[in-house]
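Per reviewer request, we include the raw input and output of the structure prediction for the construct analysed in the revised manuscript.
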Amino acid sequence: MKIGINMYHLVPENGGVVQYVLTLLQHWPRLCPGDPLVLFCFPRNTALLEAVPAVFERRMLQDQDEIARSLAGIDVFFCPFTALYPRPLPLPSVVTIVDLQERFFPEFFSPEDMRNRFHHYDWSVALADHIVTISDFSRESIVRILGAERRRVTRIHLCPAELPETAAPPAAWKHEGEHPFLLYPANFWRHKNHRKLFAALAQLRAEGMRIPLVCTGALLGKEAEWLAELAQLGIQDQVEHMGLISRAELAWLYRRTRGLCFPSLFEGFGIPVVEAMRSGTPVACSRTTSLPEIGGTAALYFNPRDTGSIAQALGRFWTDAELRETLVRRGRQQCRQFTAERLVRAHRECFTRALRTYSEARHRRNLAWVANPDPPRENLSVHERLTADELLRTHPVSRFERLRRRLAHLLCP
């Protein structure tokens, strides 16, 4: 089986999805040597192609539309960057959809973003022979919101890239000696919920507990907004922002922080949670979307919409060393399920399913759909709103999940 992969969106700004694709490619030759990959590459990929194994055939193109004329010998076509394109093609196709954040928080997106997501995500799910997603929460979202047949959607947990060992602190590190802190690695996107975190730190400070926080990631041109928020709350002297840092610098922070604080409102997976567990770092995070699935019993959870809940959890997390040691032990157990071998072998199975279920009749139906597209839209339907609200309320606390956690607690107290 020869798999063609659309690499058009392999660019640094695509962050976590790039890491997912690079991990898949780096381990594929060892685990699936009999199934060659053909990479459809573009000049914009140059900066990251050095990290891709040289064993793969590369077909250098100038535009994505050229892919349709360059499919000689390809058995399955794979788009890992959240959109199937070109579409439809006359061969089995697989697409990765990491999440549907816009269906849950449309207020975080511009009208143009909403139109693009409706157009690409809905069509990709409808036309692909098989769909990969990265958590049970995302799978349930795709099935229930977009109406995909459950058998066509496979959940494959991510495997974060290994963090390098390093003895050197980040270049921006200004402290000497002991300096306990909490860590939050995230860009200043609205769903990352920095403001609620800052409010919780301010509440704790008013109660006599000062918790230093180190943040990393991009401020996205909102430096003034960041500083004003801290100044208004009076915590500018306890929050340090290091900007974009290297993987080695991030590893240094993970191994020296008192814990990872992750108050995100929405995650398709939550890579920092697994990175922290691998690093022996305890985790306090939101009880929402995919995070309880990824953290299992190895995290202290809070309600990310409630300042008091965040403050109460962080106060306990900061002062209770025994709790943190318990979370570290559980984290070492929990993170064992996120492996490169599972990532690669599960993708191969999805490609095989697409090859097995593809039919000429389905392709003719897809052609008819594309010829008669629905009008563009930028607002959620009533069904989408109601289903998204229900998933936010119910997914993390299903009876199956509660039972699984109780069993995990007994096995790893």
